[in-house]
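Example 139.
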Amino acid sequence: MSFGAAASAHRGRRLAAEAACPCGRRDFGSCCGPVLDGQAAETPEDLMRSRYTAFALGDARHLVDTWFPGTRPDDLTIDPDTEWMGLVVLDSDTASDGRSGRVRFRASWREGAAREVATMEEDSRFVRRVGRWYYVDAL
Ligand SMILES: [Zn+2]
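Predicted structure in complex with zinc ion:
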């Protein structure tokens, strides 16, 4: 019997509540920790931050769970060699009907033998369904 990739995906590491959250906003226990443990994100930015933190902690399950089913990849693996270095949220907004939102951010990481820091900037789209935000895609 198989429950598929979504059910078997790894939950990753957890940090102490008072540790600095990988997303850089405040301590883990009052930032991304509760969202990683299943609490609904209040805003698109909160969800985006929790997804960055999920990459940093190896929580593939959270990434799958918060990806809109229509755009979710069949398979998702997190490269354990990638070290996430930081997140900067540049801009975010929620539509007046509360059902969609966008977050523009810059994330940096390093990987491979050289460990050179790389940076990406993305404008992500989110939708809210039955009280929960989902990542849709990047513009
Ligand atoms: Zn956080």
